[in-house]
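Q: Given only this backbone (392 positions), what sequence would you predict?
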């Protein structure tokens, strides 16, 4: 990932909105819960209606409200349901009223193998574009793809995105690409990684508080599923997308969580022209052949026509299952970022969430060449294929 000139603001604590399980409210008089969450003070908590959290509701209804309480309450918000505010209520403040965790109805299709907005792609409490490093818990769906080489050595040479507790989306060229050395085997994924040189990873915030993540997870890959129509030798690299099925279900933490897919009808067909998105990974930088830290850069979507006019000079013909982004000097994805996410942001009636808009496919060499956007597989075109390929 090439860096962009920018500023990095380290902000306060984060509120994670969703849980690893699906919880649905029901009509009973019991307290409905909308999943587990972490409070601004990093306590374990449940996301429930504000009125059901007696303690916080009490603070809100005390006037005058102190500024620090206002801040705490706004950072504790974990969504809306039926226009009512949901709040992240610490376990120790909840009274003993029984809490319902009704299961979603079992659906005959496997659509419900995918998390829905609220359970995926959660935002931090604040965020800044133009930074270089990610925060330790930012983009927790990022995966590094592990290869085992001839001599038994392992290395990470592609990126990917966790989409549920069993599957990672990556590029097909990371699975069966024509320039993958014959003696490399894709054997696993690393999740919960931030700085590849330390384990566990820790970040110190502005107040000097050290925040450490649990050790990263190395999970074996049980099956690689390249897109059936991907042609490794093709110039245009259409259908450059693949799924990796993990050998076991993983548990979500603050540092390991899925991104949403562009499930909404309008997101599936959107081209994202002129829309700002983030690309993230541990790929090549101006200085290093691979970055130690998970980086991000903001890139704008470029129309397929404009992109085609550039790549056409190389006899590369793009299709509408592809999309382009970037093309500004020095801001791009790069070697090693392949398979990683181009991240979009969307707001529906209930949530603002991140979704996987694109998968890093190819781009200019050297990276970050002015006028040469990066090419991405447009994930909206593959939502059906992904859904039908997922198994419980
Ligand atoms: N195929 C590359 C990889 O192996 C991705 C390159 C993206 N390049 C670019 N200039 N956007 O990681």
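A: Predicted residues:
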């Amino acid at each position: 990932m090439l860096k962009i000139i920018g500023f990095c603001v380290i902000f306060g604590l984060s509120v994670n909105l969703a849980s690893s399980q699906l919880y649905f409210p029901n009509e009973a008089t019991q307290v409905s819960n909308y999943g587990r969450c972490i409070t601004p003070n990093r306590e374990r908590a449940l996301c429930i209606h504000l009125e059901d959290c007696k303690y916080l509701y009490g603070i809100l209804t005390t006037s005058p409200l102190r500024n620090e309480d206002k801040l705490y309450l706004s950072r504790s918000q974990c969504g809306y349901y039926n226009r009512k505010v949901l709040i992240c209520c610490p376990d120790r403040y909840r009274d003993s009223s029984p809490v319902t965790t009704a299961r979603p109805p079992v659906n005959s299709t496997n659509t419900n193998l995918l998390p829905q907005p609220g359970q995926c792609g959660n935002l931090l409490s604040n965020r800044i574009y133009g930074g270089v490093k990610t925060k330790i818990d930012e983009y927790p769906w990022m995966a590094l793809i592990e290869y085992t080489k001839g001599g038994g050595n392992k290395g990470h040479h592609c990126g990917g995105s966790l989409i549920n507790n069993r599957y990672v989306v990556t590029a097909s060229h990371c699975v069966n690409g024509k320039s993958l050395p014959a003696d490399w085997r894709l054997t696993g994924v690393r999740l919960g990684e931030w700085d590849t040189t330390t384990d566990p990873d820790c970040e110190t915030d502005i107040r000097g508080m050290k925040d450490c993540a649990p050790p990263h997870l190395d999970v074996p890959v049980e099956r690689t599923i390249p897109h059936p129509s991907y042609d490794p030798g093709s110039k245009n690299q259409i259908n450059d997308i693949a799924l990796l099925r993990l050998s076991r279900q993983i548990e979500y933490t603050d540092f390991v969580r899925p991104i949403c897919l562009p499930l909404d009808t309008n997101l599936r067909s959107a081209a994202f022209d002129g829309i700002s998105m983030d690309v993230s990974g541990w790929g090549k930088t101006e200085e290093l052949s691979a970055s130690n830290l998970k980086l991000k850069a903001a890139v704008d979507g470029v129309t397929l026509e404009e992109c085609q006019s550039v790549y056409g000079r190389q006899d590369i013909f793009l299709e509408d299952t592809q999309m382009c982004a970037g093309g500004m000097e020095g801001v791009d994805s790069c070697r090693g970022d392949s398979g990683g996410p181009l991240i979009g942001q969307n707001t529906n009636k209930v949530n603002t969430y991140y979704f996987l808009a694109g998968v890093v496919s190819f781009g200019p060499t050297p990276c970050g060449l002015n006028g040469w956007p990066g090419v991405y597989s447009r994930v909206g075109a593959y939502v059906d294929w992904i859904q039908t390929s997922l198994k419980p």
